Give the backbone structure.
Amino acid sequence: MPSALARPLARLIDELSKLPGVGPKTAQRLAYHILRTPMPDADALAAAIRSVKTDLRYCSVCFNIAEADPCVICSSDERDGGLVCVVEEPLDVLAIERTGQYKGRYHVLHGAISPVNGVRPDDLKIAQLGARRRDRGAHPRDESESGRRGDVDVRRAAVGRERCSGDASGARSSDGRGP
Ligand SMILES: [Zn+2]
């Protein structure tokens, strides 16, 4: 039976409905909105979607998403290189940066250890965090009790109990999501 929807419109609705939190009705509403949008705005939307796929990369130091490698935070002289806040996701960096209180750097694990969901330490950027700690050498902060705990400390960080200075209240808590 032929569909009442023109194929390009059906295709757009189908693609939009794949987005998180977008059900079929919302996808339809968005698709008709885009259909009525002036061409320059529709082009800008399409270009913005393409740009996040082609113009971004992972910072090779902190693994945050960035335009340049190293990212602006890792390459900034104004950041405390001896202080690293370990977070689960790039959005956590955004939340902490919004507070304007934290002046250290970050390490993004891209997830949390979760045996239930089959996420193992090797699936995350934990080894790279260990390498950063070693590269940094004997920093005074590493002489703390928590610093001497080494891998245990890293794993604790990996389940989202970030060790940040300053007010990180904007960060998403992941308590209870660990192993
Ligand atoms: Zn970075």
Summary: The chain has two domains: 7-54, 77-158.
